[in-house]
Amino acid sequence: MMRLVLFFVFFLAPSAWAGCNNIACYGVGKEVLTKTYLSASGHIYIGAPAEKSKLNCQLFQGKYMTLKMNHLLYKEIYSTILTGIAAQKHLQIRIVEGSPVCEVSYVTMNS
Q1: How far is CA 58 from CA 9, 48, 64, 67, 75, in A?
Q2: By the 8 A CB rule, do 57 and 22 touch?
Q3: CA separation (Å) from 109 to 4, 13, 50, 77, 81?
Q4: How far apart are CA 39 and CA 92, in angstroms?
């Protein structure tokens, strides 16, 4: 019984879910985001996890997804990201495929 419990703790822990595929990065709270910062241009740069090379876009400075200031849901997406980090919720950050700065398309948050 103890082995079964250890299996669930170590192999199904939220941090095991962090990663990227060709269209999105996903994970729980801060596990999915290595760093997030607001630039002087108003864009928000979101650090992608270790598997960022799988994304079908070109990351800004080789490591950041970009939430552009002119995105229609800019405030809502940023708020969702901050809430997901603080509450340790499962986040998925979808990118625009082939974009030159790995532009964020939308974000989902699950419990």
Answers
A1: 35, 12, 9, 14, 23
A2: no
A3: 29, 17, 20, 10, 8
A4: 22
Residue 36's SS3 state is strand
- pLDDT 10s digits, 73-108: 999 999 999 999 899 999 999 999 999 999 999 999
Locus of tokens 């996890």: 49
**29-68: pLDDT as tens digits:** 777 776 888 888 899 999 888 777 899 999 999 889 999 9
Q: Which residue has the tokens 């103890």?
A: 2
Q: Residue type at 96?
A: V
Q: Tokens 């095991």 map to which residue?
A: 16
Between CA 19 and CA 42 the distance in angstroms is 26
CB under 8 Å to 45, separation ≥6 — which residues?
A: 35, 36, 37, 38, 39, 60, 61, 64, 65, 66, 67
Global pTM reads: 0.79
